[in-house]
Description:
- This protein has helices at 32-36, 43-65, 84-101, 110-116, 167-177, 184-192, 217-229, 237-266, 281-293, 310-322; strands at 2-7, 12-19, 22-30, 74-80, 105-109, 120-121, 126-127, 135-140, 145-150, 157-161, 270-274, 297-300.
- By secondary structure, the protein is α/β, with parallel strands linked by helices.
- It has two domains: 2-125 and 305-342, 2-Layer Sandwich (Nucleotidyltransferase, domain 5); 134-301, Nucleotidyltransferase, domain 5 (2-Layer Sandwich), CATH 3.30.420.
Amino acid sequence: MTLLAVETSCDETSAAVIRDGRVLSNLVASQIRLHAAYGGVVPELATREHLRNWLSVTQAALEAAGVPVSQVDAVAATQGPGLPNALLIGFQAAQAVAFALQRPFLGVHHHLAHLYSPWIGGTPPAADFAAFEPNVSLVVSGGHTLLVHVPAELEHRLLGATLDDAAGECFDKTAKLLGLAYPGGPEMDRLAEHGNPDAFPFPRPLLKEPDDNFSFSGLKTAVRYFLAKHPALLDNPARRRDLCASVQQAIVDVLVAKTVRAARRLGVPCVTASGGVTCNRALRRHLALACARHHLHLRLAERGVCTDNAAMIGILAERQFLRGHPPTPLDAEIRPHWELEDTGP
Ligand code: KG4
Ligand code: ZN
């Protein structure tokens, strides 16, 4: 089966071609530079960029895969959650392509697509669902922080989520307080590599709570108050690196501890992590250490599919279709606030 997938939920216009679980192409036109000037994603600008780029990105993805559009068997797109007008561009464009080709159309949940991205790997990338293990999945991005129990493939039970800011949002907002460019996550990661993570004892929000929820806005506020008290610190490059490392460590400690604790409580053999924040080197290192310590198998999304991309949309759409999920009607609408629903017995 050959599937064309489109993703436009936020600030990346992406198209991918998937064939039988393999990623033939996965092109991403990033708008990061455009939004950086405003310190965050400007929805109106994102919409215009998607409109401007979706066709050329889609054509380029088909060309890179060596697949004429007439050979496409199904078309998928992100249905939600995401920025409403940004979602609309990719979703309606994909519906129109499906209509013109008279092929099934598949609307995909963005967070679930992240959740399955750790199963995409190898060269050329292929989805290794044969190695599926019951797991606890950490999905950690700019817009969401979720902990999900996945007892079997395509079965999900939401364990916890952030009560306020997402982990990526916390990286981005604290980075802004430190005067770093948007998006701050990658820049914090870079500076933190040469800083001391124990230099400043920032809070580990909800770490001691028995539930699986997260909260990061208090950490951001703690950094704000700390900087108000110690403004000169930002002028010292070494102390600035220590600050980045300390904030990063506070976020990482909470994510790792809560994920591993949930996996042990539920008795699953595997932990997965996905979403933009999974690019973070400290998070990857500390998850690996904690999982090794507790004899848990760790599947991390490869860096190339951590941030938003259409390959993860296509891989999940194909899997759902082959497992009997019905196509999405061509008059279906986007779902900007689509909550992750529990599925399975
Ligand atoms: O998954 P993604 O591309 O978009 C959403 O669905 O939200 O994630 C983007 C988020 C941003 O907050 C960005 O700062 C964060 O992922 N991010 C990182 C790193 N790379 C991206 N955060 C920490 N360290 C990184 N290396
Ligand atoms: Zn995402």
